[in-house]
Amino acid sequence: MDINNGVIIGGATGYKPERVEIFLKSLNLAQFKGKVILLVYESDLAEYERFYPPSAFGFELIYRVSRIGLARRVRWYRTFKPLINRLFERLYRTNRHKKAELLKKFAYPHVSRFFEFLQCLEQLPETEFVMLTDTRDVYFQQHPFRQIRSGLYLGIENPAVTLAQDSYSTGWIRDVYGEKVLTDGSKATVIHQYDRHKDWEERVRRQFL
User: Fold this and answer.
1) pLDDT at 97 over 50
2) Which CATH code for domain 6-200?
3) pTM for the complete prediction?
4) Is the alpha carbon torsion for 33, 20, 67, 45 positive or negative?
5) Residue 150 CB contacts under 8 Å (≥ 6 apart), including other chains
6) What residue spans of 53-189 are helical by DSSP H?
7) Where exactly are the structural domains of the chain?
């Protein structure tokens, strides 16, 4: 088992390069030697490459141009948002694959990024370790996979706070899945997760498709 045969995939869409500096530099100081894939918008790619050329770190830095969430920036989106949400809710019950295509374009980046994550994983079949993460507010104190063996690893939020009390999560869950799904899961605890690669693709599929 090679702890450097791993990939860390993070979304940086809409962030200026300065916002991910601590993320990248702390990972480098932690002696990570695997791959780091950053999702960025095409309009920001040149600036990222100036700030952080691929040779700047001890790990392999890969930029992946993304279009997730771009439709939310157009002027007419707010006008039609209630209609789009009702469409998402209906498709969640009837045609989840069609819903997935629409989510890539219309959902918030922190939702639609999971489809990009899945595409990355499909292109990395031999990877032993995978971490899907934020970038702006994440830093590393040691090699991210040093104490990982196998299975799914979860990071829990404040256990006293349920999903219904988490205004950030309730907003996007209502947008994507509708009011009924949000109500059904309202007593759940909010968690984060990462794990070994073996069945990550299937887990991402089950979560959003």
Assistant:
1) yes
2) 3.90.550
3) 0.73
4) negative
5) 195, 196, 198
6) 77-94, 96-106, 109-122, 167-177, 179-184
7) 6-200
